[in-house]
Amino acid sequence: MSAPVSVAKGAALVIAMRWTHRLIGLVSTLILARLLVPDDFGVVAQASLVVGLLDVLTDMGVASALIQNANATQRHYDTAWTIRLAQFSLASVAILLLAPTAGEYFGDARVVPVLQVMSLGLIVAGCENIGVVNFQKEMRFGLDFRFMFTKRLSGFLITVTLAVLWESYWAMVAGAIGGRMVGVLVSYRMHPMRPRFSLAEFGSIFGFAQWMLVRNIGNYLNNNVHRLLVGGRGSTAQMGAYSLANDVAQMPGTEIISPLNRVLFPAFVRAKEDPEELNRLVLLALGVQALVAIPACVGLGAVAHEAVLVLLGEKWLSATAFIEILTLAYLVPSITSTPSYVLMSLGYVRLNAVVAWCQLTAFVSVAVLILPTAGALEIAQIRLATVLVTLVGLLFVLVRTLPLMRWSSLLGVLFRPIAGAVCLVLAVDYVAAFLPANPYVSLVAKVATGALAYVLSVVVLWLISGRPQGAESYLVSKLRSLRRARKKTS
Fold it and tell me: pTM of the prediction?
């Protein structure tokens, strides 16, 4: 059994896990983009939206409830496993019943059989061993890495193999179900817990999970209502381009921030009784996330045209404009995730739910009521505007909730990354006029120029500011530690 690790080492492990996970997904996407067409992606994307919606409508967030409860017993785990299995079973039945309606809404009968098959995958997922939650709770991220990697790799191999053989969207459906089946088998092999049917601790879990349910529904709708609108208003091919653009756009922020949150959530829970340490940890986490996520998201948007040509092919050029806007839209959640997890660790799940639903209400009000005929590009722009408003709201809630948190501290950790990102965009725009038409050369040159401009500008601003304690000093100290470690081993 692997031992618990520090936050820094845990973050490194989970980032490695997430990037490996996403690298597999990226390779899979690139291969499938060459084998399939936007229309194929559109069918699976439409079906996935329905599956995800029904899944989240019944999701009680039992894993978060177990992590947040430091005194959880076997009765809590048994109850959580029972609730989750019931949740997935209920969602599966609902998908079977709603499949014909979904086919009519999207105007594509192919969605119906895909939904019927995908509903079986939910029941399979519900059988997964609840004990693997302890890998994250106990900060045993080495085991967490192995578990997630095995699931992802198996799904990738199944999907790509069948895509080569079938050249059909059914390969993506089979790969998703196959990955879940492997996940169930591996979960029982890796953890000794054997959950039983029980509702003995339903009350204690539901007390926390009820607001997690409300929050999760709000978050899911925030992340997917724009896709539902595009799917209902546009063609299947346009839906495929928009959906792939959405997946690509969220990679920079999601693949950096999501793994950190797996580490930070239990760390915030441990520090919640020490306001000074919690405040320090929040500012450091927010600073590191902003320092990395902001240039990653802004940089992808700056090279979107070349990236699409090189990685996906000319037939996907229609996705370029979507990527340019959606990368900025996904930058905001990468920053607001830290305040969200802080509130959750303190038990303020209700506040998180309120924020999520306020954002959803704002988006729906504009995209459905005010601009009912908005196309895909306009829907992406509306999404960007609403998440920017949410960022301000969530930071306001954080300042009001943490007694030691100040606006000056928050702006201090965000200013240099934002200023660096502006320099990145200006540098890329300037060098573009001198580059050849070759997309490969142009992509490499723009990435190198943008990265250099960002690093130099942030470092200069940090030095001018007097080298304040924060994300930059933390990363410098880690680099020095690595150097000393190398010298000792050499």
Answer: 0.66
